[in-house]
Design a protein that fits this description.
By secondary structure, this protein is mostly beta strands. The protein folds into 4 domains: about 45 residues, no CATH class; about 70 residues, conserved putative lor/sdh protein from methanococcus maripaludis s2 fold (Beta Barrel), CATH 2.40.420; about 90 residues, Efflux pump adaptor protein, beta barrel domain (Elongation Factor Tu (Ef-tu), domain 3, Beta Barrel); about 90 residues, Beta Barrel (OB fold (Dihydrolipoamide Acetyltransferase, E2P)), CATH 2.40.50.100. It has a 6-stranded antiparallel barrel with strand order 4-15-18-17-16-19. The protein has a 4-stranded antiparallel beta sheet with strand order 5-14-12-7, with no helix packed on it. The two termini are about 50 Å apart.
């Protein structure tokens, strides 16, 4: 009995575990070379290969939707147009002004050429003349409200000195774009459709431009809330709010930019293309099942499918998903194993 417990039973257990391990190895590594795995006699074959889709014709509308903020347009600085002293102020601070309206006068002196002549003996003479006193009027750079006029009468100013600012009183909508959205707006239109939550009906925002987001010059005071829209960086879309739209700075807005549409064009799923702007690669499946990498010229995309302008013909088969490279670890030269 002792022999059974100490020798026979442990040997049988080892044999059973060895049979189970061998069966698992066969199940794990048994399969064909076409990407399928045989799950056993009488069981269905599991196909791990990427499916193929046909190049077809369809419509693509490139609409980019982002979240933005209503902001007040920055005040325009008023700069001195001459070097001299302030003679008088023509408009009071806080007044509404028109573009080009005079805001203040600057008095300056202009040197005159001396009077050239001859004395009684015929010798040439040069008699200096007093400088001519001139006045220069500083105009309003834009229409709006004169926020401040930070100068006094008889104050000395130089050309280009800031002497005040005019707030245009207009609003804009700004939105930060992601990298993918920037690529989709390589040739943006001049308008966008804006909807302000809880506000008026959707309206058209004009003068759409893309540019670098403003950078915050100084950090916010401790405990203060950060400015709406972040501290700058990246690319910002900006457009002007029409005068008849009742919105206020700080309000959130949904911005929709339609950057093109195409009808009856060749399209494939965006997952089938390596790359998404201008050029890309697809994997064409031949009649014999062979896969061929091919370069294509890309057009518009709606985020789900993408236009193929060159490189493919209607009806050709392409892999629905870009092949993933083999991620098996590559042993470095000279590395003989886990112990070097």
């Amino acid at each position: 009995m002792t022999v059974l417990r100490t020798v026979v039973f442990p040997a049988l257990r080892l044999l059973v575990w060895a049979v189970i391990a061998a069966a698992l190895v066969v199940l794990a590594f048994r399969g064909g070379t076409d990407g399928s795995v045989d799950t056993g006699p009488g069981a269905p074959t599991l196909d791990l290969a990427s499916p193929a889709v046909a190049v077809a014709r369809g419509a693509v509308t490139n609409t980019v939707s982002v979240t933005g903020t209503v902001v007040a347009d920055a005040a325009v600085p008023v700069k001195a147009t001459a070097a001299g002293t302030v003679r008088r102020l023509l408009v009071a601070e806080g007044a509404t002004v028109t573009a080009g309206q005079g805001l203040l006068e600057i008095r300056f002196e202009e040197e005159q050429d001396p009077v050239v002549g001859k004395d009684a003996e015929g010798n040439p003479t040069s008699t200096p003349r007093p400088p001519r006193v001139r006045t220069s009027t500083v105009p309003a750079p834009a229409a709006g409200k004169l926020d401040d006029l930070d100068v006094l009468v008889d104050q000395v100013v130089a050309v280009g000195d800031k002497v005040g600012s005019v707030s245009p009183g207009t609003l804009s909508v700004t939105a930060t774009l992601t990298q993918a959205e920037q690529f989709r707006l390589l040739t943006p239109p001049t308008t966008a459709e804006v909807e302000v939550q809880g506000g008026p009906a959707p309206f058209t925002c004009t003068g759409l431009t893309l540019g670098a987001a403003p950078v915050q010059d100084a950090p916010a005071p401790e405990g203060a809330a950060p400015p709406v829209g972040g501290t700058g960086g990246g690319t910002t879309a900006r457009c002007a709010v029409p005068a008849d739209a009742t919105v206020f700075p700080g309000m959130g807005a949904s911005v929709r930019v339609q950057a093109g549409a195409a009808e009856n064009v060749l399209v494939v799923p965006i997952t089938a293309v390596q790359g998404s702007v201008q050029t890309g690669n697809v994997w064409v499946v031949g009649d014999d099942g062979a896969e061929e990498q091919r370069a294509v010229t890309l057009g518009l995309t709606d985020g789900d499918q993408i236009e193929i302008r060159e490189g493919l013909a209607e009806g050709e088969q392409v892999l629905q998903f870009v092949p993933v490279p083999d991620d098996a670890p590559v042993q470095e030269p000279g590395m003989g194993g886990p112990y070097g």
